Amino acid sequence: MDQTAWNFIFIGITFGVYIGIAIWSRAGSTKEYYVASRGVSPFANGMATAADWMSAATFISMAGGIAAAGYGASKFLMGWTGGFVLLTTLMVPYLRKFGKATVPDFVGDRYYSNAARMVAVICAIFICMTYIMGQMRGVGIVFSRLFAIEIWQGVLIGGGIVYFYAGLGGMKGITYTQVAQYCVMVFAYTIPVIFISMIITGNVVPQFGLIGDFVKEGQEHSQPLLDKVNQISTDLGFNEYTKGSGNTLDLFCITAALMVGTAGLPHVIVRFFTVKNVKAVRKSAYWTLGFIAIIYLTAPALGMFARTNFIEEINEKKYQDAPQWFKNWESQGMIAWVDKNEDGIMQYRAGDVFAGKPSFDDSRRTENGPRLVTNKIVSSPNEVYYDRDIIVLANPEMAGLPKWIIALVMAGCVAAALSTAAGLLLVLSTSISHDLMKKIVKPGISDKQEMLYARLASLAAVLVAAYFGINPPSSFVAKTVAFAFGLAASSFFPTLIMGIFSKKINKEGAIAGMIAGISFTLAYIVYFQFLTDSKEYWFGISPEGIGFIGMLINFAVAFVVSSLTPPPPREIQDMVEAIRIPKWAGEASDH
Fold it and tell me: Both 95 and 122 in a single domain?
């Protein structure tokens, strides 16, 4: 069978499973739609949470970032994993004990204010919409390669599928669909890396291959793989792969923003509302961390192997002799070559190829064959452009792995994007139907009407997300998603932490803090991403890392405003204290 047939088989089987689960587990009540009737086992919820959290940014972009930046991409590994530890130790056990269905629901009740609830709804919409556009972009990239279609067509197909099972099944349907998606993801991520590790290093365990020797047929002496990649990188004018570069303060801020942003993501938090009690929350967290570790401990090896294969396959090769995978991705506009010195040979070196994102004109070609890029070409020795989001997808093709493995990777990428998109859609729909319509606008609506509003909100969210998936603020999925983490870090994380651990923070402080934090972060992102081409960031802090500063602003404003306004009512203070005390601890005392 050819590659297209294998792709259709794997994608068709997985989509059939997802849709079948959605029909089997469709929600019949708001309790099933919002929290799956709180009947999910810790094991299943751990797997579903891992799938929900490991988005297209993790599956597609993280290894691509590691391949391109080496040590510099450690911010994603440290930020996302560290944030999950914060989430599971400091937040979700207490939030689950509170017993609400959504994050805005907690904010509204803890801060005894519909105004606070409304601000939380707006924050949730901004966070989820920013996040989901990255997932739609990831779906579009995969489908464009699978079916030789434009990225915008792939985005529309993916959006339609995720709306079907998220809108129909709600949290109940999403949970069991995500269990299936995690299974697809973990096999799709690990199996190719095992094969590639054996080819490159002779080690069946990728993590050992990463620190092992580079093995090449016909080569008498082996060389440590890390030394090999460092040597290749420096020979091509790049920094050493294993050494950091750039602004240390910015690296710290990005890592911190990803960390606290993870702990403030509403679509991850609500996953822990689906188990029956706090004990189950902690068990679920243990399972989740274990499932996440399988993929996160594999990502550095995948990135390293991909970089090695990419350079070996491309650099100093004639364009006419370029491998088929290069031509395949070139036809999708995801990779390109500009023959600057007109020698017909592809040179991959340090430096930019284009001024800005490249655009391609198929009607114009140079004598040597490649499509001519219509953007301004930068004067540098680099002739090869590639979108980092294709690294994971193209890696099996670079290594010459069997066609069924390539198809499996495609199915895994789709599963990663759809699983997170479904969770985000649910948060968007419940924020609008439950927190906005039911709690603020129309308190008297029936259960059936609330479900209708939820599904309509999901449809509207899919349409908006599809638009931004086609026209994203950044072509790199992980960068787009990083903005969502910054918004979560500057809005929800401080508000939730203060709501759990401080009895002094009142509604005025919480509202002012959320508005100040997210407004500052959003304004900074919009200015530097859309309104100017300047890279003269404040103190060198990029838009991806500014959420950490927004978080500090949120904390400061909330404490100052709370100290200048009346304290929360006594019953609210008692409720906050009760959230933190185990049931068996007895009465709180001052001793």
Answer: yes
